[in-house]
Amino acid sequence: MSKFSWIIIVIVVVLAAGYFLFTSGRESTPAINQPTEAPQVTQGPTAQPTNARENQSVMMQNFAYNPATLSVKKGTTVSWTNQDSVDHDVVSEPNGDMFKSELFSEGESYSFTFNSVGTYNYYCSVHPRMKGSITVTE
User: Fold this and answer.
1) What is the chain written as a DSSP string?
2) CATH number where 92 lies
3) Domain that includes residue 81, residue range
4) Strand order in 109-114's β-sheet?
5) CA dihedral of 52, 39, 106, 131, whole degrees rounded to 10
6) Model confidence over 67-119: pLDDT tens digits?
7) Whole-angstrom distance, CA of residue 100 vs CA of residue 78
């Protein structure tokens, strides 16, 4: 084989591997009971929860949601705060149909109020291996 043929083969293999790595973390699980409320984005740190029914916090740090799973009562507002030096977002599965934040930077927050019972899976579209789940009960 010629040197040119080897170069083409290497390029194709590298592109295929990159595509596989990029798309492998994007599995979707349908969510239940889609809420219709509009999300809110705030800047700066968020306040600590004052009432378990009203506010809960999820930190985004070390490329993970902390806690990754959360159980809340119906009517609870969950705020995600980015503590990483890179931008993240919060996207409900599948494809942000229930809530989808813009990218936000370190120290910024995004909030959403869960008014329907169900399980809501979400991920970061920039880092699809970052996944979390909110279970809402009565």
Assistant:
1) --HHHHHHHHHHHHHHHHHHHHHTT------SS---PPPEEE-SPPPPPS-TTTEEEEEEETTEEESSEEEEETTEEEEEEE-SSS-B--EETTTTSS-BPPPB-TT-EEEEEE-S-EEEEEE-SSSTT-EEEEEEE-
2) 2.60.40.420
3) 35-137
4) 40-42, 109-114, 76-82, 55-61, 64-66
5) 70
6) 999 999 999 999 999 999 999 999 999 877 889 999 999 999 999 999 999 99
7) 13
CB-CB contact of 104 with 88 (8 Å): yes
Q: Is residue 18 part of a domain?
A: no
Check: pTM over 0.85? Answer yes or no. Answer: no
Gap between the Cα atoms of 23 and 20, Å rounded: 5
Q: Establish if 71 belongs to a structural domain.
A: yes
Tokens 């979400």 appear where? 122
> Do the domain assignments include residue 13?
no
Greatest extent of the chain over all pairs of C-alpha atoms, in Å: 70
Place of tokens 């996207």: 91
Q: Scan for tokens 């999300």, then name that residue.
A: 39
Write down the residue that tokens 């984005």 correspond to: 41
